[in-house]
Amino acid sequence: MFRRFLTCTHRRLPYDSNSAFTLSTVSAILPQDNRIFLKPQTLANHFRPSPTSIPLQSLIDQYKTSQSQLKASPISSQVSYFGSETREFLVNRYRESCCSEDAKELHLQIIKTGFDNDLFLCNTLINVYVRNSELVSARNLFDEMTGRNLVTWACLISGYTQNDVPDEACALFKKMISEGFCPNHYAFGSALRACQKHGSRGVKFGMQIHGLISKTHYAFDLVVCNVLISMYGNCLGADDDALRVFDHIENRNSISWNSIISVYSQRGDATSAFELFSRMQQQGFSTKPNEYTFGSLITAASSSVDSGLSLLRQLLTMVKKSGYLGDLYVGSAFISRFAQFGLNDYAKQVFEQMGERNAVSMNGLMVGLVRQKQGEEATEVFKEMRNLVDINLDSYVILLNAFSEFTALEDGKRKGSEVHAYVIRTGLIDIKHEIGNGLVNMYAKCGAIVDACSVFRLMVHKDSVSWNTMISGLDQNECFEDAVVSFCEMKRTGLLPANFTLISTLSSCASLGWKMLGQQIHCEGFKLGLDLDVSVSNALIAMYAETGFLTESEKVFSLMPEYDQVSWNSVIGAFSDSEVSVVEAVKYLLNMMRAGWSLTRVSFINILAAVSSLSLQQLVHQIHSLAIKYCVANDAAIENALLACYGKCGEINECEKIFSRMSGRRDDVSWNSMISGYIHNEILHKAMDLVWFMMQRGQRLDCFTFATVLSACASVATLERGMEVHACAIRACLESDVVVGSALIDMYTKCGRVDYASRFFQMMPLRNVYSWNSMISGYSRHGHGHKALDLFAQMKLKGQPPDHVTFVGVLSACSHVGLVDEGFNHFGSMSEVYGLAPRVEHFSCMVDLLGRAGELKKIEDFINKMPIKPNILIWRTVLGACCRVNGRNTELGQRAAEMLLELEPQNAVNYVLLSNMYASGGKWEDVAKARMAMRKAAVKKEAGCSWVTMKDGVHVFVAGDKSHPEKELIYEKVQELNRKMRDAGYVPETKFSLYDLEPENKEELLSYHSEKLAVAFVLTRKSGLPIRIMKNLRVCGDCHTAFKYISKIVGRQVVLRDSNRFHHFADGKCSCGDYW
Questions:
Q1: Where are the PPR repeats (predicted)?
Q2: Where does residue 301 fall: left (phi above 0), alpha (psi -120 to 50 degrees), or beta otherwise?
Q3: Cβ of 341: how many Cβ atoms within 10 Å?
């Protein structure tokens, strides 16, 4: 039997010498007080078993007594032949053996010495095989044995359990029962431990074993009851069963109390754990808490959200009094938990007071420092302790993580490179692949993605963590396409993606706008069962939102089985980014609060970003009040969001209050938000004062500050201020920045210097779509339609795809130069060539194009065929077109006016346009009716005015204005210009005087229009520079004609910016070619 067995193939499994079934447990008749076998797995880190040693001779005597009823004549003869000395030698020699060679030698000696039927030695051999993780050999020996006792069964069941083969342990236990053996407490304990390893799947069989135990005297055995507590505690939802077993124990020991406390601490039920601890203390000295008790309580305290810190501090005081603070296990637990809460001072204090330190305690302190982004301090701890403790491989992994949390990432990368060289030189990188993962992570987070890729390529063994780290690093370093490619390569290796893999890849898809690939990854997650993972669902919400598919984003959210705060914040953020769905964002915020979730700073930032576009003062005030209630109103990011909201709502006083309170918390966003608020509320002088104040303080202005201020200068056409800001940008070395460059082009075109804008555009080292759009719109605005279209052609040749704004500029250019057919071609190419759905502003441009060309019938057909409902902008464009054709087709104009008055009855512009349409056609009765309707609506028409900027300030004029200090000189100059213009052939165009007056009176009114007063004022000053005039309304036809004469008479260029466009008058001609 044994000679055949010696040739079998052995299968080695991991061996845990501390938990092996030792020789001292082999006797089935040992007193129950010798509880050597039991070691609860749930407290594996808490208990260090110290087996009770039993004299060898006692074991042999007990064994002989237990075998008195067996027919063992062969054994007796062999014993008498070989002698008890040989037998005792074999037992002493091999009872603690953990070596595979020893197992073979013992096996051989048993055969040679004739003890092959000696039950005690065979059990010993099984135990040696088990201890050496050679379970196949142990099972073969077990199957070949002619006689077995309880110890034989218990040894093998224990071996299967300790070597993580719970299925075999349970099956062998069932076979033991079926063969009529009544298990002892060792067999019961091992079988229960096997059920525990199965978790919730094994609890059913564990309960059956419990039922069997209850029929034996072991129902009151303390060891078995302790194992039952651990078994039930390890199964979800079986806490009550564990507590019932505990309550059933009459004489509890420390292990019993520690087991039940451990159950509740691992469940995160701090209240129950500490209540049990209080009961334990009431039991007296016999159940005095030890290091394992405190270890479980530390875990329980850290799981309490509300009182965790307080409990930890109280425990620290108690542990100090008990003298366990120097204990390695307790100290390490304290360090880890204090570090988890960010209390690194406490963690350091405990670390310094520990009597014994090891790599675990050092690693715990380093992990805490790394979590608090104190990478430099974590590195110092490693340097101080590396010669005092035995550094393990995990220490190097944590150290690499510390480098990525350095304040200066370049320093972190340099330190990381030194460690990289060390692990290569010592060969550690080949021993533990986690070090390779740490290097990839460190390089990626330090911005050295090329080095991270090099390490990753050279790694021999790559697990899922390796791929996840690489994909995440590529995504974080904006190498989005490489991240997606790496995901596909990972799948080809046969590794299954984890939730972290999908999250990073979905983030890259969102950044690339690749919705189709994102959907494929969604399907992949669905197949793997990861679609219901909360973090993956959150990533899907963000991906669909960023690619513009809010319906899918909302669908993902609605199908989630459970939410976390990130889920709610993600869906609120998704709707806040879409102007048309802002109300939905507010609804989700309310639902989040109704569901009992607390609002976080991210919640407030997202909702404030949403409501800022609504300009609802009351809603902003309510959200501000909530922020105060949740104690986050002093957070800089939320204050910045509030500044933006109040600024857009016109409550600049609230902005100033918040801004003044921020003092030391102000950042670049704060200053930019305040400046934007002033600009939005047309308080340009305060915005500029704030900019100068920033510069005087020596604060460096960023590109967004310059872009904001330049936008303000453009909005009010203050060329001088804009040029000053340009000079500041040059001094700040930001002139070549694409954002600042695009803003400069926009500013110069809106301030009338399209030549400066064109020159700057040609000098830009880098252009983006905004740069092209600003220049195209600038040419269009100045009447250079052909230049705008040529630039659009260049844009396409350079490979820059146009967007919706580009086509607004292109269609406006066609409108200003009368290119109707070309305008329709470009309009059609939006959807056919570029996949851009036309928006309402594009339809408005087409209506304007037809209106300027006098194609009123085509306008009506175009509006009737539009896929969208005409809005205020389109109807106002239609009414303006009817005004320009001298009141022809008043039916269309009346229809447009009716729609406008229905949609916007309080806007005076609508009444003015209707009145002008009637006046241009000489329908004075209808004019009177329109003006009467305007008075009944109690709306006021904006007064037409013109202004010029001189060295001594801005001078504003209105029609017939006589309030200016130099009015006499101005009116003299007007009369002089009138005489010279008449001599040159000028005839006043009285049709543009929209009042029912005599021709002479109409001519007089036309003579004193605000723009004519403005140009006369400039001509009273001696200068040869171009004259720049701004007007808040569209220039009338008579003034347009007069300015052509004036430019020729005075020999100076006149640049007039009205509400629609720029007119450049020079030598009797206008840049618009009289098509405007």
A1: 149-183, 253-287, 463-497, 667-701, 768-802
A2: alpha
A3: 17
Structure tokens at 494: 């046969």
In which domain, by residue range, is 95 found?
A: 85-147
pLDDT digits (tens, 9 = 90+) for 303-315: 776 676 777 777 7
Number of C-alpha atoms within 13 angstroms, CB side, residue 575?
21
Tokens of 674: 């305040």
Instruction: Give the three-state DSSP class for 947.
Output: strand
Say if residues 39 and 27 touch (Cβ distance below 8 Å): no
Q: What is the pTM of this model?
A: 0.59
Residue 2 in domain: no
Q: How many domains does the chain have?
A: 3
User: CA geometry: angle at 524 spanning 520 and 526, to 5°?
Assistant: 115
Q: Which helix (H) or strand (E) holds 762?
A: helix 754-763
689 in a structural domain: no
Closest CA to 890 of 863, 870, 917: 917
**Domain edge (last residue) among 331, 346, 361:** 346
Q: What are phi and psi of 33, to 5 degrees?
A: -70, -20
Sign of the alpha-carbon torsion through 610, 534, 401, 330: positive
| Of 148-152, 167-171, 297-301, the least confident | 297-301
CA dist., res. 756 & res. 760, Å (int) = 6
Is residue 19 pLDDT above 60, yes or no? no
Mean pLDDT of 34-52: 33
**Across 289-307, average pLDDT:** 75
Between the CA of residue 21 and those of 35, 383, 912, what are the distances in Å?
12, 41, 100
Average pLDDT over residues 414-423: 91
Query: What pLDDT digit, counting tens, does each position of 1042-1064 carry?
Result: 999 999 999 999 999 888 788 99
Kindly tell me if the per-residue pLDDT of 43 is higher than 80.
no
Residue 725 located in a structural domain: no
- Measured CA to CA, the distance from residue 202 to residue 998 in angstroms comes to 105
Question: Listing from the earlier edge strand, what are the strands of the sheet with 1054-1057?
Answer: 953-958, 945-950, 1027-1031, 1054-1057, 1062-1066, 1069-1070
Q: How confident is the model at residue 922 (pLDDT cuts 50, 70, 90)?
A: confident
Any domain includes 43:
no
Burial of 1032 (0-12, 13-18, 19+ CB in 10 A): middle
- Measured at the CA of 118, the angle between CA 112 and CA 119, to 5 degrees, comes to 140
Mean pLDDT, residues 682-700: 79
- Answer whether 1032's CB lies under 8 Å from 942's CB: yes
For helices 652-662 and 636-648, the axis angle rounded to 10 degrees is 160
- Determine which helix (DSSP H) or strand (DSSP E) holds 522, and give its type and residue range: helix 515-528
Q: CB atoms < 10 A from the CB of 785, how many? A: 24
Examine the pLDDT at 61 and tell me if it is beyond 70.
no
